[in-house]
Structure formats: structure tokens, C-alpha cells
Amino acid sequence: MRYDMPGPEPAQPIGVFDSGVGGLTVLRALTARLPGEDFLYLGDTARLPYGAKSPASVSRYAVQCARVLADQGVKLLVVACNTASSVALPALRENFPGLPVLGVVEPGARAACERTDTGRIAVIATESTVRGGAYHTAIRRIRPNAQIHSLPCPLFVALAEEGWTDGPLVEGIVQEYLRPLFARFGEQGPDTLVLGCTHFPVLCAPIARVAGSGVAVIDSAATAAAQVAEYLDQAGLRRGKQANAEERVRFMATDGAGRFARVAGVFLGQDLTPEQITIVDL
């Protein structure tokens, strides 16, 4: 069902949704880059992870999440989930024709193409994102001759959500994933590594150490925030910094306010309480 909306206005909030808490890395980058904007964040914690779901299910869930945010009058929808960004953008744009929709795959792919010198680009993501080939498609659209290899890293999600973001155990798991992935490129290896899941930036330190100084690590959260800022400026929708006002964020989840608040500290860099999380029913 199409959801017709009036044109967006600068004073409206920005809507951000993810399958759970990983998208909080995108929210963190957005609030840092866009002081004064209001944000609504929705984590679909009742149905996570999206990474192992079918494309049809992910698209259906994404439309349901978007409807919650659209009902609250957002001016822009940020799909802070690589899996949903890889399969659900067409469904979102069809169902919400008046609502601008931005994902995290395209800005990550663009940043990788701008950074690489050799065209050898590695991608780590969820199973669904890798299976769908969204990064391959987006990168080759910009750089047709790029050599791309990708690998699903499901344990990274579990590590991030448990708050295990560094140390010998984490570094050992990172090595187990990256060693065979990098070997696919031959002796020279890749020169660019895309973190194709919004959980992965909290593991950036051990990932960067294992990858080595010759590999540029692309954070899809940071690149998405840069694209949002660029879009708002071009569309005349940036609210700008407000005098005597901090950025304001409202948090929603579909289940588990207590766990959401506990895990959010790892991704958002600030403590939340369960009372700050509104549970919504999709």
C-alpha cells in the first residue's frame, strides 16, 4: 500500500531504523555531523537479525518500520542496516513516494572506490548482504574493473552485541575471517576493506590491526552520515545548529527495552535506561 506524504520540511526529524542496535553506529555518526537535528531511531529487536532472513521478509519488515517513522512525520528515512539497504530500498521508495530514503550501501561503495588505488576491495558483511551482492553491484557501477571479494562474518555481530570489541579472543576471530578472505586476492591482497554491517565499526580497532596499515578500512556508518548531510544541504532540508539546543533523539524498539538500553552503550557511546526506550508493536 502506497503511503502518500506531504513534502518534507527542515524542522521535521530524521528517521533512522535498523534490525536492532547496530544502526546506532550510524545514529552516532549522524548526531556528530548534524548537531541540532532531531532524530527518531527504531530498532526492530523483536525480529533481528535481518541478515539470515529472506529478501521478501526483510523488505516487508522494512516497510513496516518505515511506516512507524513516517507516521511521526520524519523528513528523511535513513536505512541504517546494510541488509535492508541491499534489498528493501525499491519497496520503501514505492510505498513512500514522498519520503526521501537513503541507505548505507551506496555511500560505502562510493567511499571504497574513491579510496582504493589498486581496485582490490574486500567486503565483510552479513550472510544476506553478501549473498545479495549489493556491494559488488554498487562498486562495479562506479569502478567496473574492480576486483571484489566478500565474506559473511556472523560472529562479529555476536561479539559486538556482547560488548567484546577488543582483546586476544576478538583479534583471533578477526584473523580467522580475514586471512582466507585476503588470500583470495593473491600475494598483494586488498588495499581497501569495507565494513558492510553497522555492527562492525565497534570492532574497527582489531579489524584494522589484523588488516594491516596498507589496508584502508571503510566505515559504512561514517560514509552514510556524510551522504545524509550532503543530501540535506542539496535539498534545503538541513535544520542547522540551534542556539542553546542539543541534538534530540527518541528511541523506539519492538522488544526488550532493557537489553536494548544495555547493548546501546557499546554502539552509541552513551548510557541509556530502559525508560528511554518506547516499545512499539509492528
TrEMBL record:
Enzyme class: isomerase
Position of the signal peptide: none
Pathway(s): Cell wall biogenesis; peptidoglycan biosynthesis
Record-annotated active site: 81 (proton donor/acceptor), 197 (proton donor/acceptor)
UniProt-annotated binding residues for substrate: 18-19, 50-51, 82-83, 198-199
SUPFAM superfamilies from the UniProt entry: Aspartate/glutamate racemase
Keyword Cell wall biogenesis/degradation belongs to the record: yes
EC number(s) reported in the record: 5.1.1.3
GO MF annotations, alphabetized: glutamate racemase activity
Reaction equations catalysed: L-glutamate = D-glutamate
Keywords (A to Z) from UniProt: Cell shape, Cell wall biogenesis/degradation, Isomerase, Peptidoglycan synthesis
Keyword Isomerase tagged: yes
Biological processes annotated in GO: cell wall organization; peptidoglycan biosynthetic process; regulation of cell shape
Primary role: Provides the (R)-glutamate required for cell wall biosynthesis.
NCBIfam families membership: glut_race
Family to which this protein belongs: Belongs to the aspartate/glutamate racemases family.
Listed name of the protein: Glutamate racemase
Organism: Paucidesulfovibrio gracilis DSM 16080
Primary gene name: murI
